[in-house]
């Protein structure tokens, strides 16, 4: 049995710390930034219902599998998949599944750090009153001035990367555990304060109706350029894709965190609790954001600019906006920080295990490489904004280097990683091994998990994958 050991990196002191850490990995810019605006773009409540169903059918089963593989292998994703493939009597080429996750996490962190740097910059802007009474034009110019200045972006990108390296260099219990014990409770407290502020100062009832009263017409029907309605399933596919990506699946983070999980911890219960906590944060973010948006008669479906353009305007014209606007961007930065430390951990663990490098040295090495890769994204917003390397392909004709990195990692590498995890967990790994790790016995719950992982979850991931790469369309 591969799982009868403790990782050389240490382990979490308790199940609750692991839940905090894994929730911190899952809770990031996707919850605070992306979930509210894609909900706004796809009709609100009906989208939320579909998203919750997808979390249950896609997210939780794959999360259980990824934690299970991590705990059984007790190593970095690369070495875990190598070990488990040998145990199952299959090719060691399965280690490339680990490489896929490590590289995806590295690429994501390289540009994630740049976007997180925007959040740090906006903490300063909000606290200094830049947005107070500002017009839409002024706020748009604040954002434009930030992203068009490579020196500013490099400074904030560098600061965020140093914060990430500082935590991971200190080890599992001395760094990761201490960080999430502080950051996650702080994140929840700030989020609840923002919701309370929205109740008092925003159009809260309108926001609740928008988020929780299903409008399936708004989900399934969109307007074309001529103002004519057409039927589309794109909103459902977006919900499926976000349910997969929001839980940090397929990038090695959950697998390496699972390798630090104590032996007697229930993987099933833990996965459910992480999924619930992640979903609660996303919904609370919606309850904090949409009342403010509606109270100032702004557009909930304003896309990616919702956080960095729409909300600053709203906070700038509301009582207490300086304080609560600052709190919001601190929340955004904390969420990004807890995710970033999980993205760097798989690569760092492999360096320590395979090359015998000390944890501090490995952290500095990975951090510098990731920082350097992040410069590609920094320059994509300014001096290289006209560089479109794959413009000959219609699907990428307007894609900058930043867009291509995001597309490669999120739309190709993560779904492929999730699909291969599902295949390995139920088609390669023995039934006895998975039953032993999950501790569910041969009961209905285990049979349901295997059914989902064998057929339904992989099909759903394949459909999402084919849609995002443009092979199929349900519009």
CATH topology: the name is Amino acid/polyamine transporter I
Number of domains: 1
Poorly predicted tracts of residues:
none
Termini gap = 48 Å
Radius of gyration: 22 Å
Order of helices and strands: HHHHHHHHHHEEHHHHHHHHH
- Biggest sheet, open or closed, and with what strands and sense? 2 strands, antiparallel
The total of helices stands at 19
Instruction: Give the integer mean of the pLDDT values.
Output: 89
Main sheet: strand order: 1-2
Beta strands, count: 2
By CATH reckoning, the class would read Mainly Alpha
Structural class: mainly alpha
Q: What is the molecular shape? A: globular
CATH architecture: Up-down Bundle
Percent helix: over 70%
DSSP strand content: under 5%
Helix-strand blueprint:
Layout (H helix, E strand, L loop, with lengths): L14 H12 L2 H13 L3 H29 L3 H11 L7 H33 L8 H12 L2 H20 L2 H30 L2 H9 L3 H5 E3 L5 E3 L2 H12 L7 H6 L8 H29 L9 H12 L4 H35 L3 H22 L20 H28 L2 H8 L5 H25 L7
Antiparallel strand pairs: 1-2
Helix pairs in contact: 1-8, 1-13, 1-15, 2-13, 2-15, 3-4, 3-9, 3-11, 3-13, 3-17, 3-19, 4-5, 5-7, 5-15, 5-16, 5-17, 6-14, 7-8, 7-15, 7-16, 8-13, 8-15, 9-13, 11-19, 13-14, 14-15, 15-16, 16-17, 17-19
């Amino acid at each position: 049995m591969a799982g009868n050991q403790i990782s050389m990196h240490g382990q979490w002191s308790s199940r609750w710390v692991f839940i905090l850490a894994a929730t911190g990995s899952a809770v990031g810019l996707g919850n605070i930034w992306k979930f509210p605006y894609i909900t706004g773009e796809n009709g609100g409540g009906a989208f939320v219902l579909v998203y919750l169903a997808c979390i249950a059918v896609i997210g939780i089963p794959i999360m259980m599998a990824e934690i299970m593989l991590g705990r059984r292998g007790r190593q970095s994703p690369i070495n875990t998949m190598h070990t488990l493939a040998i145990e199952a009597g299959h090719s060691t080429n399965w280690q490339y599944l680990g490489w896929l996750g490590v590289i995806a996490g590295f690429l994501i962190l390289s540009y994630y750090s740049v976007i997180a740097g925007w959040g740090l910059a906006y903490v300063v802007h909000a606290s200094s009153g830049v947005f107070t009474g500002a017009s839409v034009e002024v706020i748009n110019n604040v954002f434009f001035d930030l992203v068009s200045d490579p020196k500013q972006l490099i400074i904030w990108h560098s600061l965020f990367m140093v914060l990430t390296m500082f935590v991971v260099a200190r080890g599992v219990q001395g760094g990761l555990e201490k960080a999430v014990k502080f950051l996650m409770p702080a994140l929840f407290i700030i989020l609840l304060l923002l919701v309370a502020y929205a109740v008092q100062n925003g159009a809260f009832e309108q926001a609740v109706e928008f988020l929780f009263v299903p409008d399936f017409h708004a989900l399934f029907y969109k307007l074309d350029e001529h103002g004519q309605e057409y039927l589309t399933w794109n909103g459902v596919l977006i919900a499926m894709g976000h349910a997969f990506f929001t839980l940090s699946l397929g990038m090695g983070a959950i697998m390496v965190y699972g390798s630090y999980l104590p032996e007697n911890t229930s993987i099933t219960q833990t996965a459910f609790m992480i999924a619930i906590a992640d979903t609660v944060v996303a919904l609370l973010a919606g309850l904090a954001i949409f009342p403010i948006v509606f109270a100032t008669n702004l557009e909930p479906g304003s896309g990616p600019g919702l956080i960095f353009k729409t909300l600053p305007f709203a906070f700038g014209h509301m009582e207490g906006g300086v304080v609560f606007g600052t709190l919001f961007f601190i929340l955004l930065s904390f969420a990004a920080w807890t995710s970033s430390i999980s993205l760097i951990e798989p690569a760092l663990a492999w360096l320590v295990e395979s090359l015998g490098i000390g944890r501090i040295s490995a952290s500095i090495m990975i951090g510098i490489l990731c920082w350097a890769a992040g410069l590609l994204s920094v320059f994509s917003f300014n001096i290289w904004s006209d560089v479109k390397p794959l413009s000959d392909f219609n699907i990428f004709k307007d894609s900058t280097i930043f867009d291509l990195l995001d597309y490669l990692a999120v739309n190709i590498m993560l779904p492929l990683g999730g699909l291969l995890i599902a295949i390995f967990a139920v088609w390669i790994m023995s039934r006895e091994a998975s039953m032993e790790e999950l501790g569910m016995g041969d009961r209905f719950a285990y049979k349901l998990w295997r059914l989902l992982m064998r057929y339904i979850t992989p099909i759903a991931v394949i459909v999402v994958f084919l849609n995002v790469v443009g092979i199929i369309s349900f519009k």
